[in-house]
Design brief:
The complex is a heterodimer of chains A (110) and B (113). With 110 residues, chain A is mainly beta. Chain A is built from no helices and 11 strands.
């Protein structure tokens, strides 16, 4: 089974600060990477996808991918209370299979 | 908007019962998936289907089966429910493979007593 690791515990950030989330994966051949956001009691929703090394920006979100080091990260700039949620890293490793990390909880403090 | 509907939000069953979880999507998606989500374990793939009557085991298929008789409907079956199957079950669909955006239903919290 392919591993996706999100090891850091709950992240508390002040409103307006940058939240930084990291994820590592085990399958060097993986080509597609995703970040899903899950509000408490709700289902996950896709917020970012990234396929190439480097940065990809979408509004206040930036995904960063480094395939050589097998990590993908998510930055949330100008964090808002509405960003308080659990963020799930997901890695596609072929054959219609997407492996999810356990998630990182983000709490934005007003 | 894509809608993925799961028939029950909460379900309580007894050990040994046969349990059906239903999922319907309204966007003509080819692929449908069943995941379970447990605290500390994250989302794990149980089964998926890439076409009507076609199914494939995911990472944790033991104790489960699935049925896809129509394109829009994907059912998860617990043949004989056990307490370790108490979990949040999430159905998802995508037009292409899981390499594309997954649309999730609102989930079914199943408790097996």
């Amino acid at each position: 089974q392919k591993e996706v690791e999100q090891n850091s515990g709950p992240l508390s950030v002040p409103e307006g600060a940058i939240a930084s989330l990291n994820c590592t994966y085990s399958d060097r051949g993986s080509q597609s990477f995703f970040w899903y956001r899950q509000y408490s009691g709700k289902s996950p929703e896709l917020i970012m996808s990234i396929y190439s090394n480097g940065d990809k920006e979408d509004g206040r979100f930036t995904a960063q991918l480094n395939k050589a080091s097998q990590y993908v990260s998510l930055l949330i700039r100008d964090s808002q209370p509405s960003d308080s949620a659990t963020y799930l890293c997901a890695v596609y490793y072929g054959n219609n299979r997407l492996a999810f990390g356990k998630g990182n909880q983000v709490v934005v403090i007003p | 908007d894509v809608k993925v509907t799961q028939s029950s939000r909460y379900l309580v069953k007894r050990t040994g019962e046969k349990v059906f979880l239903e999922c319907v999507q309204d966007m003509d998606h080819e692929n449908m998936f069943w995941y379970r989500q447990d605290p500390g374990l994250g989302l794990r793939l149980i089964y998926f289907s890439y076409d009507v009557k076609m199914k494939e085991k995911g990472d944790i298929p033991e104790g489960y089966s699935v049925s896809r008789e129509k394109k829009e409907r994907f059912s998860l079956i617990l043949e004989s429910a056990s307490t370790n199957q108490t979990s949040m079950y999430l159905c998802a669909s995508s037009y292409g493979t899981a390499n594309e955006k997954l649309f999730f239903g609102s989930g079914t919290q199943l408790s097996v007593l």
